[in-house]
Fold this protein.
Amino acid sequence: MPYPHLTQPRHPALSTMKNKSQSVLERFANSSMLQRFHEVCIYSAGLAWRILPNSMQVSALGRRYGGSVHKMVQAFSSRSQYFSTFFMRNRPELELMCRLLDQKDYGASVSMAVLACSKGAEVYSIMWKIGSARPDLKLTVYAVDISEEILEFAQRGIYSLDQPDMSAKPDAFETIQERDVSWNTGRDQNAWIFERMTKAEIDSMFEIDGEEARIKPCLKKGINWIRGDAGDEELVRALGPQDIVIANRFLCHMKPGDARRCIHNAARLVRPGGHLFVSGIDLDVRMRVARELGWQPIKDLMRDVHEGDPSLREGWPLKYWALEPFDSDRPDQEIRYASVFRLGGTHAPLASVSGAGIANSVAVPGLAVQRHSG
Ligand SMILES: C[S@@+](CC[C@H](N)C(=O)[O-])C[C@H]1O[C@@H](n2cnc3c(N)ncnc32)[C@H](O)[C@@H]1O
């Protein structure tokens, strides 16, 4: 379900920067006359795209036309956040994470922040994948989301194996627990949350009890559940530098100016030499920040990760959140299509970053962060 108040970070320090950094295109798109006109434009462009034969759509000319349509869709669509997610959502992304961690010594400690974790599927998939590949690593994971209620659901780690009927009336469920689990599992999903898993993976990750799938306790160890805004500088102070920061599939639901500020903040969380995973964001925004801050794109599995999430690829060019097809003719392909970057610590530092992290602390006075230990 969309919840429009989340489309802009609410940190007061950020709102003053907003007007200055709004692009000409954004201001143009916000004018009321164009707001009325935009649906007609998008509809006509979409119609023209749909009647193109597939051979034309995939040609160089077709891709250029698609690119222009997508730019228009991104400029004129209103954006809102969703809770949809999948277990094992992007396999090459998980594989790359393991390859990067393979450089760690036996038994090393690794700290990771998963921003916008939603129902927890991404965090538990990471715990399972890394735990299977490198059981020796001591993982500390901060799972952050701005929504308290989805975070509580994620922390419980109980999902419905049913393909839920979201239109079902509350009294169609036998118990409140069943309603909560079933309804939250299916919330905003246009496809089954388990659809990308094999039966063997489900058995390995969950304890099955009737229609309920419960995350195995060993996969919850080391996860700290935190309600926080990924764009809030306090989060950087609270968590301290991380080896890996994951900021996937929520920045595309923000206006470009807000996404830029949020990704800058996510970058501040990465320790010098650490890695940032950032997909599901307007490519122009990501490219611009990557250039500004001198991020080093990781070429390993670059194309596989870009193409690794079918739900993002399928909507192009008519959905603002969709990803353009990988274009191997582009001279800037590395900076445009890399979803993972090594950061050298060139971002503007905060006045004081404690670097201590908040593991084992229950309350951090003055910070807009609540900790729920997992
Ligand atoms: C589409 S889900 C992404 C789930 C997950 N990252 C994935 O890739 O499957 C978007 C999530 O972003 C969260 N979110 C939106 N804005 C946020 C913000 N500023 N800080 C933290 N979480 C945010 C929403 O509450 C929602 O749970």
User: Anything to note?
Assistant: DSSP finds 17 helices and eleven strands in the chain. The radius of gyration is 21 Å.
